[in-house]
Amino acid sequence: MLWEVARAEIFSANPQAQVSAIILKQWFQTLLLSNEFEPKQEIVLLRLNAASPAAPILPHGVRIRPMLQNDLPTVTALDMAAFGDFWCNTQDALQRAHAQAVHATVAEDDAGIIGYQISKGNPFGAHLARLGVQPEAQGRGVGSALVHELIHKLGSHSSVPLSVNTQGDNAASLALYKKLGFVRTGEYFPVFMYSQKGSR
What we know:
Layout: H1 2-13, E1 18-22, H2 26-33, E2 38-48, E3 63-66, H3 72-87, H4 91-100, E4 101-109, E5 112-122, E6 125-133, H5 142-154, E7 162-167, H6 171-179, E8 182-195
């Protein structure tokens, strides 16, 4: 009943809208399937399993520093460029994540910010909530350098377990985390999406 009302309001305002949901419980998946939501992909969870990662190696001309409040507009634009419409975060969402972070950094070169990471604390350790690299800078080792710096800052290889999640079909992301010593936990969360027929 709630979805019927919400759907009418959403699509009267924007017929091209897409509604997505991450499934945590089976009953919710059953409910979505019965209301014409369709599977889109899966989110997989990984945990750092390396005994002691190698010291971080910064790409030539790249430096890492703490993320500042006034970096957020640039980080928001980078996030959109790196993740696209479906997975990008708004500036408000990134601002909240930054305020709750246990460690947040940016990577920059002479042209400006080219990557960032935001990590949050949880009862079990820490979670790499977001890692983004400007598309033009991908493949230079910027993401690896940001994660290496995070690992050494948190001491995650010894006392603070570190987790991360990514899309199960994101081969580049999975390869990066594997190289850094992360392994899949076996936990995954399906993502379902709904859009009006004929508006896709």
